[in-house]
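Re: Re: ligand-bound prediction request (bumping)

Still looking for help on this. To restate: I need the protein modeled with adenosine-5'-triphosphate bound, output as structure tokens. Inputs repeated here so nobody has to scroll up.
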Amino acid sequence: MSRRRPDPAAAEAPGATLATAITRLDLKARAEEEGPARAPLRWPLVRRLWSLTTPYAGLRNTLLVLTCVRGIQLPALPWILSAVIAGPLAARNWPGVLWGSAGFLALLLFTAVTFHYRMKLSLVLGEVVVQDLRRDLFGHLQKLGMRYYDRTKVGAIISRMTSDAEALRQGIQDVVFVSLVNVGHMVIASLIMAWYDLPLFGFVLAMSPLIWAIHRFFGSRLGTAWREVQSSMSRVTATLAESVSGIRVTQGFVRQERNAALFHELVSDHAGYNLRASRLSGVYIPLLDFNSQLFLAGLLVLGGWQVLHGGLPGFGGEQSPAEQAATFAALVVFIFQLPPFFLALRVVARQHNTALTAMAGAERVFALLDTEPEVLDEPDAAAPETIRGEVVFDDVSFGYDPKRPVLHGISFKAEPGQTIALVGHTGSGKSTVIKLISKFYLPTGGRVLIDGIATPGLRTEALMAELGIVLQSNFLFTGTVMDNIRMGQPSASDADVVAAAKKLDCLDLLEQLPEGLHTAVGERGGALSLGQRQLVCFCRAMLADPRLLILDEATSSVDGLTEARIQKALNVLLRGRTSFVVAHRLSTIRHASRVIVLDHGKIIESGRHNELLREGGVYAGMYRQFIRAGEAAS
Ligand SMILES: Nc1ncnc2c1ncn2[C@@H]1O[C@H](COP(=O)(O)OP(=O)(O)OP(=O)(O)O)[C@@H](O)[C@H]1O
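Reply:
Sorry for the wait, this slipped through. Here it is.
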């Protein structure tokens, strides 16, 4: 954890304690979204990860061959050098030195070419596998139902697609191939050393676990520290983005100081993690370097003794000149083999840490891919060509959590072509009724019937083909006005889009935009006014021409003139199709075939506007309030 100095400015800031509490909660929630940093190596998971390379078996197998070749080349290079020094050079044989150098150069070139292709192909393999994985994840996310999205945070989904997918890429592109190269290198180098001098090699083996242990101790701590640095940075950027986009609210509610305290806390957290990682690196790298050099010093003493005194203490007696030359050659071989041998050991240990991170990422990514989409269709569900648009709620009850119902015994019938206005206080269940008609959920009790077919028996695609949804948030995707309208009917031509806008009598309003229908709407439609966004969504629904229309009317007000045009467009849009409107406009409610008043998930009144007014019940009270609020605002 980071150690922070108390900051007087932050402590004095109003709400600093609250800010700290919020940060703590926020950090905890985000840490939960990110999940554990590492997971143990599990064979089934490794096999599944490896199976992602199956479609690219040719590429993968070429890489395996290159990996093996490189595992031999790496120890062969220092071996040639040591052989030339201990052989031709010690014997003062100049042509032999030249031949040896030429052989070294040739192998060097071959090694460079192998390295080039190994790097290139592993990057390609990592890229194609991650591309497939992201495509599969996205496709799978599209299939998951509302329940999944109700319980999963957006941040968690984004982490699966970004940091976890990246961890998998590292696992596939680096861990396997880099580890194989280095393990191969170590095996061959060990064979060479053991061949030259078995007892001296015993000394090397005895020291290796020390280096491995140092690496494991620091490596895992460093891995965690760097991951914390990264995630604390993403918290800083996320908070910064939120603060900048919400700057008006911040200033409006005079929250600048509180936000500054929160931001300060996140930044000092990040600095703390950075310092911790730097402190660890500062000990680890010099320690490892010192150990390797110490090792060489030990080797020089032992090997030197052997050369000068004939064999290691306790391993044989007097040596002949030929044996002494062989001992000298062995020492040179060891001195050349050892530094890259320890380097390879370090690389393998580092890859082990990366593999644990990849395992954690793989567990989460596969868990998402294995999440079964909720089955909403019965096996023999009907898929009628068209829908007339009769909607019946037959004693429907529903709870997002089945133990806590939010709709109780709802019954009503909408004839084809009718407009049903849903009104009620916030949380009364209006949106939930709409979600049941849209088949985002199935009722927990009773039946929702469309054209006499209960929703589980009606194929979801058939319903969606005849269902148009216009939400209050007026969701627009990055692209042009034209693209956004066409989303309602992807095969529609430009002329069809223009015709839809004409039908709603709003073409002139959209053509007034800087580039007319080709104007880019900006992120989430930010480049358009609220009224323009609503019109684009109406055109989108008009183009799709569904039999059933769901409309969550926007509450935000637009200027009087635009309001009149929107109202006119809305009347055209509603005409001739069964519509359910979460109504906020008086004129929509007045023209509705029926107004359904909900309270705490129950229908308390139902009828035409005038009838309900005459009854003088809850609706009449709401209406009076509405009128008073309208007068006060004008
Ligand atoms: N995804 C959800 N998970 C759990 N409970 C939910 C969910 N959505 C809504 N609820 C709860 O269901 C009840 C009805 O909510 P609903 O959104 O249908 O009301 P509403 O009348 O549309 O409200 P508003 O006018 O504020 O949009 C509320 O108590 C709400 O807290």
